[in-house]
# Entry
Amino acid sequence: MDHKGFTLNELLLYLGVIGFALILSTVLFQENFKRLEDTMKPNESFRQDVTYTYEDMEEDLMAAATKYMMQKYQSNNMPNAEKIEMETLNNAGLFIKIYDPRDLNQKCDGYVQFEKKDRAYSYNPYIKCGKNYETKQ
# Structure
């Protein structure tokens, strides 16, 4: 007897093999994606390189605070002193939240103390990253 096509057993076998391959590839893809997500934890800072230091954070924070003060007051009636929180700079879109370079699960917090001395302005950054780092004052 000459028959064309697949028998029911052959069809079920092929569907089983394809189903198993799909399940296996989905599981492996999810595991690899999760591993990739874990290794690429966001470092919400201006620099994404490995050598980003606390001093770099302070410089970036000062630069953002300077830009913020220039935009806010446009050098007309700037106050003699002001404390600019990191959250304020974040809300203004000038500085994003940063993580501790030694522990990417630890967010850092800080501010910049802005003061007018004679005719010049000084910006003193302060950053605290958990127990790993705190700016010396």
Observations:
- Helices lie at 8-39, 54-73, 86-91.
- The CA atoms of residues 80 and 118 lie 10 Å apart.
- The beta strands are 81-85, 99-100, 103-107, 109-117, 120-129, 133-134.
